[in-house]
Protein: Oxidoreductase
Organism: Virgisporangium aurantiacum
Amino acid sequence: MNPVDPPDLPGRRLGDAGPRVSALGLGCLGLSGGYGPVSEADAVDVVRHAIDLGVTLVDTADFYGDGRNEELVGRAVAGRRDEVVIATRGGVRTARPGGPPSVVDGRPVSLRDACHASLRRLGVDHIDLYYLGRVDPAVPVADSVGALAELVQAGKVGHIGLSEATPDQVRAAHSVHPVSALETEYSLWERHAEAAILPTVRELGIGFVAHTPLGKGMLTGVLRYPGELGERDMRRNHPRFQGTNFARNRELVDELELMALARGLTPAQLALAWLLARGDDVVPIPGTRSRDRLAENLAALRVRLPADESRRLTELFTADRVAGPRLPVRR
Ligand SMILES: NC(=O)c1ccc[n+]([C@@H]2O[C@H](COP(=O)([O-])OP(=O)(O)OC[C@H]3O[C@@H](n4cnc5c(N)ncnc54)[C@H](OP(=O)(O)O)[C@@H]3O)[C@@H](O)[C@H]2O)c1
């Protein structure tokens, strides 16, 4: 179930027993809206182009675009199935079509159904890495992971992952079935994983997939004012993109931009290089709808960050300097 090593890109293994993947994956959330419009043809093209460039980890979820995201990933990988590790997740739903992922359902029966539906939409006979999208507080994690373990035994899933789980949940899950990867937000401006989550996965030999590595685009420097965000842009609901928070965060990005400029890099490249330097077990999955930005992001793999520069970046985006919580407040 492992693809061959990517032709050009350095690889990283997800955990002691997980699949080997390109050191940067492709996050597909933005390919069905969320950050603005994109045609299905362009979305499929970006995924195919990523595979051409040696990306072997493609990350989607069953609720993205109400299932359309998995369908387009399926179209993109058709005929090239062996070249990619497909990662998707179940256990989280939207309460209404197009709504935010607000319903967590980790019951074994729901996870089995969700996995089968993902297999159908992706048009594949197995999913390489299947994440429990969120741990359901109403269901023992052992029961949810037990259902995923059965899917592994049935050959429908290659490896099990967790998403945004706590250290205790990771331990409990890993004692039921080996967990190959934990996917959690991690970037210059979101470092909550460093305190206890990263040490836990390192101790257990679990890989770490860093989602939202570009801070939903903020760390790329392209956003200057909150007013630039379109009507349907999901960042409008995120506190860090609002009002004075935006302005304060933008000041940090200004400094990131200057540091990048001095090195002949883009802010996105510097932000990704910093993340890649956190450890060989960290695999960031930046998302983009653009071929050019994809190539730009992949070039971060060639950047070697001197220790003093890395430290400056670490100190620039400390939690007390970043304005606003990372998630919208749910009412
Ligand atoms: N497990 C979870 O709970 C969870 C949660 C969130 C996300 N994820 C996964 O993580 C992936 C990455 O997160 P994300 O896509 O939300 O955020 P991200 O990777 O931090 O940022 C994506 C944003 O950055 C822009 N961008 C990318 N490269 C750029 C560049 N070089 N220059 C300028 N702008 C650039 C994109 O715009 P364009 O498209 O216009 O280039 C998009 O608006 C998702 O796709 C998804 O697969 C998982």
User: Anything to note?
Assistant: The CA atoms of residues 187 and 213 lie 5 Å apart. The longest strand covers residues 157-163. The radius of gyration is 19 Å.
